[in-house]
Amino acid sequence: MIDIHLHILPGVDDGPANLDEALSLAHSLVQEGVRIAVATPHYNDEFPQRPAREIYERVHALQQELDRRSIPLRLLPGHEALIKPGLIEDIQLGRLATLNGTRYLLLELWNNMWLPETERVIFELRAFGIIPILAHPERYRVIQQDSNRLAALLDQGVLAQMTAGSLIGMQGNSARKCAETLLKRGLIHCLASDAHSPRRRPPAINQGIQIATAMLGPTKTHQLTQSIPASIIENQAINTAQDRLKNF
To answer: Model's pTM, two decimal places?
Structure first.
């Protein structure tokens, strides 16, 4: 599996507090079948906004530790950006890292409110050539209430990433029900762990994949966990929302 949403850099956000915790999380990911993962620390006002260059350096340092301990996990750099005006400028100035330096940006919405500028920010990102990947849409209350809100964003060229653990209720019953609905409607492009810790926020990937496979079949689940994430980190084009809906 290729995991495009992960909080593994030690001492950066609400992920591992130190190197030992980060290495323990890496072990958990490998046990769950992950071989490539994008480190996506939060980019918001809650934590220090570390620039893209620093994220690259921290990823490199952690990769050296993984290699030294023969942990077979390849790390790539990125950010999980909370939606706000000005993200394009942040990318241009090197403050905000896209996923592995590609055109794809992991974008987070507010959980309990819909920012009035949401569609405008997404339009500006798309006009600049950036493709937002919406992190864990099953957790947003507005999408839980109406999955058509996500479908409308996909029509703007947005992709959607579901947290695998949501399918087993790790984010609550509302998120689990919404996750099932979004999968059935073909509104999800990839599954990821959004792991923060081997205990507090574990990967729980295998259990989620089992449920997804039961719902969609092995071919579609392979797309969500391997082929589409591979296209993302390699900066390759992915089908539009309309094409994706036809595939399911």
So the answer is: 0.94
What domains are there in the chain, each with its CATH number? Answer: 2-247 (3.20.20.140)
Q: Given the structure tokens 């990125």, which residue do they identify? A: 78
- From first to last of its 248 residues, the chain has per-residue pLDDT tens of 999 999 999 999 999 999 999 999 999 999 999 999 999 999 999 999 999 999 999 999 999 999 999 999 999 999 999 999 999 999 999 999 999 999 999 999 998 888 889 999 999 999 999 999 999 999 999 999 999 999 999 999 999 999 999 999 998 999 999 999 999 999 999 999 999 998 888 998 999 999 999 999 999 999 999 999 999 999 999 975 444 444 33
What amino acid occupies position 94? G
114: exposed, middle or buried (C-beta count within 10 Å: 0-12, 13-18, 19+)?
A: middle
